[in-house]
Design goal:
Length: 259
Amino acid sequence: MLAMIETFRRKLAAGGVYGPFSKTSEPGMIEALGYAGFDFVILDLEHGPNNILSVQNLLRAAELSGVFPIVRVKEDVLSSISEALDIGAGGILCPKVDSVARAHRIIETAKFAPLGQRGVCRFVRAARYSDLDRFDYFKAANQSLVILGLEGLEALAQLSDILTLPGVDIIFIGPFDLSQSLGLAGQIDHPEVEAKMSEVVECCQRAGISVGTFCETPKGATKWRRAGVRFISYGVDLSLFYQACHETAASLKALDRQT
């Protein structure tokens, strides 16, 4: 996994990286995403049907097909951070980070000393069940990415302080939750929402921290990539599958109308 982490970090530093959220428990879907050429996949424990056991097999599929695996952990369960990293996640995405204190706690939970106080166990999948030298494992494990999801006005008010914390790799803007906090639920293209998102992008750029966001249209992805967003989470695997099936079915049914 260390090699995958290093490769992903180089890609992120060089330009844009792209990948969907995943809400399936099917390893074959994850393999297909990798073979299709996506840079990363976000395995969703917050808004998906998976648990830590099923995600473990999805991580194996991601590694097999070369797509970088990130786990979005549950909002209120810090223990899910170490669980995801123990089974081999290359990075974690923590939702609803609304304060400096919470951001600091997340980093502390995700990193071994001296960077944090993550619970120590080398008899886990990430350490190849103790095959790796313990000290090599602890050092390599601290390279895992920490992505902080900022989704409300409270988080934005503390952004400058959050960005000073060592160990933050990516700030992820949740446009739908942000729109809701502005009283514009679902209106992710509203000028007020876009203005707040732009403020985050500019603040992170000044601090030298990469920014990510969710997009569901090529137009949106193009807009935010041009604005300097490097981590583009595009769509959801099952929605992408549905759209492809819908378009294919419509094309096939059109054949009858042409005959």
